[in-house]
Amino acid sequence: MHAPALPDRSVAAYAGVVESDRIERLRSRADALGDARILHVNSTATGGGVAELLRSIVPLCTDLGVETEWLVLDADDEFFEVTKAMHNGLQGDDAALTDAMQATYRAVTERNAAELDGEYDLVVLHDPQPLGMLDRLRERLPDAPIVWRCHIDLTEPSPDHLGFVAEYASRVDHAIVSRSDYAGVVDVPTSVVYPSIDPLSEKNRALDEATIAAEHDRLYPLSFDAPVVAQVSRFDPWKDQFGTLAAFRRAREEVPDLQLALAGGMAGDDPEGLAVYEQVARDALGDPDIHVLTDLPDTTINALQRGADVVVQKSLREGFGLVVSEALWKRTPVVGSTVGGIPLQIEDGKTGYLVAPDDAQAAGARIVDLLGDDERRARFGTNARERVRERFLLPRQLTELFDIFLDVLESDR
């Protein structure tokens, strides 16, 4: 395992965007944790929401005086093909999980666990990838409670995949999920914590007009002088870029100069990403109004979300979908599907619109509705910013995590 490089974070810097009483509560919970040492483990340092969350959470914990480390599994493509199949299975896909795949999973996770040499009071395993470390961790750290933080949409998991994951997850001390509908899938004490965006990260921080203009120039030939619809997502079958393409083509029938930006990257632990990107690029080939963009810097994504007239998130499954809150924070209304955590973020008819995940025609119609009413878009944008400020910023999430860690540590004692 290895520790990713991390940026600096200061809790004092959040005073400009978060109410003082929330900052004080966060400080008090950090003080209550005292000298507890916490370890987070996941499967990649780049791409995807988990890595983004940990990149902000871990250094902020350090600034608050809570000794926190983040380690990433060392694994090869064969392992990630297995864990992506598990991820897909937990989200409802019925792909096979063979004995050979299970053996690969166990071998890699046990090898990584054997490399652990630090001392910790609590361990947080993120998603299915590191769960196979459980038995070795129990031997190595017998007094440390283990928390499973699941970021996946567990609405309709495949029984075979859930059964395999539950072999481990049913033996952790506590589970955390992103939505109440996911609780109870594994029979252990479970808490619900909504993920959050970091308003000070490069992707979400305030940008001056000159920076926005420069970043928009980098996106040429995409032009912000004509209407722009954007979707920012990993290239992944569940993100349904093909449904967004269909919604865009429906909307362009009424808005002829409409453009679409499909921006995304490939997570280090997702072997499907490149293939999906190539399929999307082929579908868009020859249409000058569709821009398929990959591996953009976070500042460019920030400027794209600010410059877009409407953002779309037409996922088929979604653990939470923080790209929705990212856009809403920037006062850009979102048309999203009624899956996972998306409805928790979008207030239908107030900050954006919700549509059925398989209804590209309805998504296209809602895009047209928003593009045709500047006043409505501005009103939705104002509402959206405040909703994210109230519910989906990092200090709130970290306070809730600290509360859970305190409870788990106390119960373990």
Automatic annotation (TrEMBL):
Glycosyl transferase family domain location: 225-387
Which InterPro entries does the protein's record reference? Glyco_trans_1, Trehalose_Metab_GTase, TreT_GT1
Instruction: List the keywords (alphabetical).
Output: Carbohydrate metabolism, Glucose metabolism, Glycosyltransferase, Transferase
SUPFAM superfamilies in alphabetical order: UDP-Glycosyltransferase/glycogen phosphorylase (SSF53756)
Q: This protein's superkingdom?
A: Archaea
- List this protein's GO terms for biological process: glucose metabolic process
Residues forming the Trehalose synthase N-terminal domain are 40-183
One Pfam family, please name it. Answer: TreT_GT1
Q: Which GO terms describe its molecular function?
A: glycosyltransferase activity
Report quaternary structure and partners: Homodimer.
Q: Which family does it belong to?
A: Belongs to the glycosyltransferase group 1 family. Glycosyltransferase 4 subfamily.
Protein name (record): Trehalose synthase
Q: State the organism of origin.
A: Natronoarchaeum philippinense
